[in-house]
Amino acid sequence: MGQQTSLKDDSVDRHAASRFIWGLARGGASALLFSLPMLMTMEMWALGVYLSRDKLLLLLLLNMPLLAVLSHRIGFEHTATWRQSIRDALVAYGIGIVASGAILVLFGVIKNHMPLDEIIGKIAVQAVPASIGALLGRSQLGTSDETEDDDEDTDRRTSYVSELFLMAIGALFLSLNIAPTEEMILVSYKMTYWHALVAILLSLAVMHGFVYAVSFDGGHSMEKDAPRWHAFVRFTLPGYAIALLISLYSLWTFERLNDSAMLTVAMSVIVLSMPAAIGAAAARLIL
Q1: Are 168 and 66 in contact (CB under 8 A)?
Q2: Is the Cα dihedral 56, 58, 61, 63 positive or negative?
Q3: Mean of the per-residue pLDDT values for the chain?
Q4: pLDDT single digits (tens) 229-258
Q5: CA–CA dist 204, 274 (Å, integer)
Q6: H-type helices in 179-236, by residue range?
Q7: Residue 255 region, left (φ>0) first, then alpha (ψ -120 to 50), else beta?
Q8: How far apart are CA 165 and CA 184, in angstroms?
Q9: CA atoms within 13 Å, Cβ hemisphere of 30
Q10: Which tops the pLDDT comparison, 142 or 185?
Q11: I need a labelling partner for 227 at 20 to 30 A (CA). Which of 42, 83, 125, 216 fits?
Q12: What pLDDT, on a 0 to 100 scale, did the predictor assign at position 266?
């Protein structure tokens, strides 16, 4: 009887180890999938050189709790405690660092003669979106068994604060793709007040419709007894406010607000909040 129990435990341990290894493989593939657009962007390369180290450190520190929450939801394996989630978050960070460093070396962006500070800066900037992408691998590239297991974790899908936090992750991920680019600033300069108003209304409409009106798998339908404005006030408006705050933070981090007038700042935030709002809605839809 004891031998059968031992064999069963060994089988369970091997299965768990196998799932974790496959999770790492999917994480590495997903890190490249989600971060390649930024890894091939000159503005992101330059950020590693001139970005304030205080702002870079703050970005890296803020990314850790985001990864922990994301890991608790869709990590490399099911996590029962926050300690395990933090472990998975650290693993995702490691994957993001290794994947970013390898691709930057492959592209010749990082060379032997470069100062260590510049090399670390370039990898650190890219590691944030890559680490988020690594954890998204289980959600987007996971097996059917893992998807079925996720459906059983209903307690993770009911927390309002958790959903807002996930929306912040989605907004941050997309804003990181666009905030460093010159085109985003150019668009904000070309816009008028009317353009800005339409952009705000369009962002709200797309964000609301993306989750509730479009019949995507995983979409959130409104309760029958709830008034029509309930979902808009409860999720869409807070989600858009989160997108605005994340956009402002991203622009500040990437030195896009230096010596800018308030009107210029407002226009830039409105422009960036469009993709950020879509990212927030998508995060609530797919995670």
Answers
A1: yes
A2: negative
A3: 79
A4: 677 888 889 999 999 999 999 999 988 888
A5: 9
A6: 182-190, 193-208, 228-231
A7: left
A8: 25
A9: 22
A10: 185
A11: 216
A12: 92
